[in-house]
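User: Let's play a game. I give you a shape written as tokens, and you guess the letters that built it. Ready? Here's round one.
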């Protein structure tokens, strides 16, 4: 008995000794200079089991931390581009082992170095492309945005992220949503050095994720995986600056900026704060436009949820704060919560110009206007996600949300539309529009998804439902010119030297009151049943009901906008209420084997509209539409480096009650429109194809995307332009109108959009840099109707000719990003776009050709003793070949700084934004028979002193030294700071829309 007990104890002791593990630390440096080497690949091989290799990369300042290795002997090979390999052996026989300095000697770049050092740049698994952050260096205080800009296949433009040719709709951090759907805020709120890797993938909808049956409501997403050690600590960035603008005559001469972000991570419990206060047009966020002030119509869109937009044109003063919180609760971590709140207040001033040329087949007129606007906006946004894993087979997810928006715009636009009748023009018409509005509204709602597995693997049910309610108020005072086009050229005012508008202007003053409300209910049921080892069948039923009410009352007033004693004008006012019921039902099939997947769904869909226009006599509107839609997806993983993904789907878009109403819209007397009660729903077919190749051995990434969209019964505009020979004369409710333009809508087949996009990225060893090239072609054909005769009795247009506007665009982008060290970082880029636009009714078939391009460079150098130099330059040029115009400017920012404090976390900087005071905001657009050039206000030259501080407290002891943070690797390089700003969203190159 004693012998047996002794044997057992000895066996257990031996097993315990054998199972002991220890941590290994080291620092990789240049043998000649002593500088740290970041991103070196370490290949670790157990001597007894050489087939069990492990790979690691050196982190910030060359730090290496391997937390857990079994006791024993190991061989180590350290490789990096431009250095000879360092090979050694060591033994782990204690809980902590330090290998000291691993010195790499510069030498000939042998093939093994190339293969090993590039091995961990990118990889892919299924439809997920994973970027190793350690392979893309940026400076120590960069944010995630700067890191993304160096990755192949990813572009960031004014805060909008595009990956693999698709717009990214959400950002996740370690699999948890981060700041809801505000991608712009998310990528500016985390430091790049906290990132281990970035994953780009197609995120399924909440319901589809559980059942595995893709419902076509997914979207492109980014998942930022943080370094294991950096999930315990506090980190962030704070900044403040004050400056002076000696050149401005329209803005505040004193400039300021303050803000930052702070992240407190404690395992699964994480909270992030952001703040931004400035008057230099820094707007690092998106907002939910529930009022439709951006021109998008507001409300909710598609399967993604809220309609997020970027800030509008002009120069803004900004106040913004936000918080994001996530945690996991319960003994079994069965409850996961994520929530965010964001508030912003903006005051935006804009001075704009528009030059619009009407060309064949339109009457050759020119519209020239100048505008000024001052808009105050407030936005509150809250959203949350609560997931409860009831059991191994049951799951409940709830998403509450609330948003409030207030918008107070004031605007005035004046100008002329002119074309000499002798030259075929329509005459001379004065534009004089004014608006002073107050809008506010809120949107509240929630959605819930219950998912359950019913015993047999693959047998599931999913119940999905949502409710939302919104209430908006839109009150405004406005005036506009209602006088018809005149044949004679205006006289020149001897005082002002411009055309005298006195005999060309008759103002109509309006007071509009337009409250509205809506609610929606949506529900779906999905059942899946396995029919073979790798196959599933599904059945789905979906129903939604959308109700809207609007009561618009418009009063024609005097210039004081008083409504005392007045009744609403019948031709300008209307009220409506509507209900849209949409139901769909259909089967689905899913086959999945060895990471290859095929999914097909088909639905029968019925939509029914029941509404009425409330006027003196109610107009009842009832329509029912029947359609069949489909969705197919195929994922083929050829091998670990090559994958194909194909989406084929169809969808419908039914006309709204305002599209169908037989009512004139004379709110702008010079541009009158009318609804079409005969409109049918549009029916679109869509194809998306993606091919991805990640050459792990050589660190190269290649992506090809192709998409096609064609629409039957496209809702096209039918436009009639008034002329001297054929003027538009209407009598609406006893009032005569002679608009410059009259339009309605009708269904036309033949809308097409084709797009292809290529991306290729590779490391360049001798430059210690990453090189990415992207190229694409996009073709669109948009049908419309031009000309015809307006039937005053029905408001419809008879006759006219079809015009197809075709646009072919070619774009190319090249980016060279340094991968040298945390002390030297540069990015050079060039992107250009060439466009050709044609109109089928143009007799000579001439093309409207124009080209724009931007060459940009960013540089940051940290010198000995902590001195820094930051510079950015961007040259932009817009060239019109057809209209013979050229606009260009050079935007250059220069900053000198000094790192301060013992740990170099602070930095004091002095610099100038827009050194040559050339900043411009210019854009060109084309359409059916016109070309338009537009300009908007921008920030010009100013001088500023700025202080930045990087907050770093890592690990349980709150160390401020990043080398003490387990698993830390340096990832990144400088963010695209607009040529300028090193700290936070510092004085940048691009200040809002251009």
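Assistant: Ready! My guess for every position:
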């Amino acid at each position: 008995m004693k012998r047996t007990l002794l044997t057992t104890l000895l066996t257990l002791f031996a097993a315990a000794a054998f199972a002991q593990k220890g941590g290994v630390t080291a620092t990789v440096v240049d043998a000649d200079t002593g500088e740290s080497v970041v991103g070196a690949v370490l290949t670790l091989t157990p001597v007894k089991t050489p087939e069990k290799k492990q790979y690691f990369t050196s982190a910030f300042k060359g730090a290496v931390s391997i937390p857990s290795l079994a006791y024993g002997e190991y061989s180590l090979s350290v490789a990096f581009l431009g250095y000879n390999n360092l090979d050694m052996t060591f033994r782990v026989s204690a809980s902590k082992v330090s290998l000291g300095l691993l010195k790499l000697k510069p030498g000939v770049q042998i093939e093994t170095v190339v293969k090993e050092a590039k091995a961990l740049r990118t990889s892919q698994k299924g439809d997920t492309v994973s970027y190793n952050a350690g392979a893309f260096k940026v400076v120590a205080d960069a944010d995630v945005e700067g890191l993304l800009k160096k990755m192949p296949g990813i572009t960031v433009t004014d805060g909008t992220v595009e990956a693999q040719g698709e717009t990214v709709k959400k950002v996740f951090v370690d699999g948890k949503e981060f700041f809801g759907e505000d991608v712009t805020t998310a990528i500016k709120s985390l430091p790049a050095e906290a990132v281990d890797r970035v994953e780009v993938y197609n995120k399924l909808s909440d319901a589809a994720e559980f059942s595995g049956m893709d419902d076509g409501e997914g979207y492109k997403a980014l998942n930022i995986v943080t370094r294991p050690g950096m999930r315990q600590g506090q980190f962030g960035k704070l900044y403040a600056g004050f400056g002076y603008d000696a050149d401005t005559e329209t803005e505040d001469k004193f400039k300021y900026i303050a803000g930052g972000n702070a992240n407190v991570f404690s395992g699964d419990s994480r909270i992030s704060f952001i703040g931004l206060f400035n008057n230099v047009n820094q707007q690092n966020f998106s907002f939910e436009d529930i009022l439709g002030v951006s021109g998008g119509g507001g409300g909710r869109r598609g399967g993604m949820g809220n309609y997020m937009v970027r800030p509008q044109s002009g120069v803004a003063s900004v106040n913004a704060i936000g918080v994001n919180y996530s945690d996991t609760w319960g003994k079994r971590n069965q409850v996961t919560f994520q929530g965010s709140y964001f508030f912003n207040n903006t005051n935006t001033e804009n001075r704009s110009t528009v030059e619009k040329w009407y060309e064949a087949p339109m009457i050759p007129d020119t519209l020239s206007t100048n505008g000024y606007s001052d808009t105050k906006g407030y936005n509150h946004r809250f959203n949350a996600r609560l997931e409860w894993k009831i059991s191994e087979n049951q799951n409940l997810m709830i998403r509450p949300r609330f948003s409030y928006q207030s918008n107070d715009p004031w605007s005035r636009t004046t100008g002329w539309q002119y074309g000499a009748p002798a030259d075929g023009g329509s005459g001379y018409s004065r534009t004089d529009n004014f608006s002073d509005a107050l809008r506010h509204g809120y949107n509240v709602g929630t959605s819930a998804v219950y998912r359950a597995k019913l015993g047999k693997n693959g047998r599931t049910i999913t119940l999905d439902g949502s409710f939302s309610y919104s209430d908006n108020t839109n009150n405004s005072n406005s005036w506009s010119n209602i006088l018809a086009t005149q044949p004679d050229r205006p006289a020149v005012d001897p005082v002002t030297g411009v055309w005298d508008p006195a005999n060309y202007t008759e103002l109509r003053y309006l007071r509009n009151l337009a409250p509205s409300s809506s609610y929606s209910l949506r529900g779906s049921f999905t059942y899946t049943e396995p029919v073979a080892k790798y196959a599933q069948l599904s059945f789905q039923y979906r129903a939604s009901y959308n109700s809207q009410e609007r009561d618009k009352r418009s009063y024609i007033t005097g210039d004081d906008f008083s409504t005392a004693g007045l009744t609403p004008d019948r031709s300008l006012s209307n009220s409506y209420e509507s209900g849209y019921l949409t139901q769909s039902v259909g089967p689905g099939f899913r086959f999945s084997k060895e990471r290859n997947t095929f999914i097909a769904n088909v639905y029968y869909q019925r939509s029914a509209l029941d509404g009425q226009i409330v006027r003196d006599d109610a107009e009842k509107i009832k329509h029912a539409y029947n359609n069949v839609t489909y969705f197919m997806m195929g994922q083929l993983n050829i091998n670990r480096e090559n994958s194909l993904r194909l989406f084929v789907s169809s969808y419908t878009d039914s006309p709204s009650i305002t599209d169908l109403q037989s009512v004139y819209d004379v709110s702008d007397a010079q541009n009158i429109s009318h609804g079409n009660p005969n409109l049918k729903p549009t029916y679109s077919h869509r194809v998306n194809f993606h091919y991805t190749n990640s050459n792990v051995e050589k660190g190269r990434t290649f992506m090809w995307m192709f998409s096609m969209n064609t629409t039957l019964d496209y809702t096209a505009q039918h436009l009639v332009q008034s002329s001297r020979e054929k003027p538009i004369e209407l009598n609406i409710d006893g009032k005569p109108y002679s608009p410059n333009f009259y339009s309605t809508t009708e269904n036309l087949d033949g809308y097409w959009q084709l797009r292809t996009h290529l991306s290729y990225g590779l490391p360049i060893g001798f430059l210690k840099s990453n090189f990415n090239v992207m190229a694409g072609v996009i073709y669109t054909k948009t049908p419309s109707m031009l000309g015809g005769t307006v039937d005053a009795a029905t408001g419809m247009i008879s006759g006219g000719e079809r015009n197809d506007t075709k646009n072919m665009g070619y774009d190319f982008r090249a980016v060279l990003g340094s991968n040298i060290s945390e002390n030297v970082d540069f990015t050079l880029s060039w992107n250009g776009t060439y466009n050709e636009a044609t109109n089928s009714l143009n007799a000579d078939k001439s093309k409207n050709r124009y080209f724009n391009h931007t060459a940009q460079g960013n540089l940051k150098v940290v010198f000995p003793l902590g001195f820094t130099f930051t510079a950015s330059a961007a040259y932009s040029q817009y060239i019109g070949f057809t209209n013979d115009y050229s606009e260009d400017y050079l935007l250059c920012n220069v900053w000198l700084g000094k790192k301060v404090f013992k740990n170099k976390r602070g930095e004091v900087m002095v610099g100038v934004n827009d050194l040559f005071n050339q900043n411009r905001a210019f854009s060109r657009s084309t359409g059916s028979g016109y070309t338009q050039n537009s300009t908007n206000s921008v920030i010009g030259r100013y001088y500023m002193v700025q202080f930045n501080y990087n907050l770093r407290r890592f690990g349980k002891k709150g160390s401020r030294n990043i080398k003490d943070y387990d698993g830390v690797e340096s990832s990144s390089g400088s963010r695209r700071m607009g040529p300028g700003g090193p700290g936070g969203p510092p004085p940048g190159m691009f200040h809002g829309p251009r």
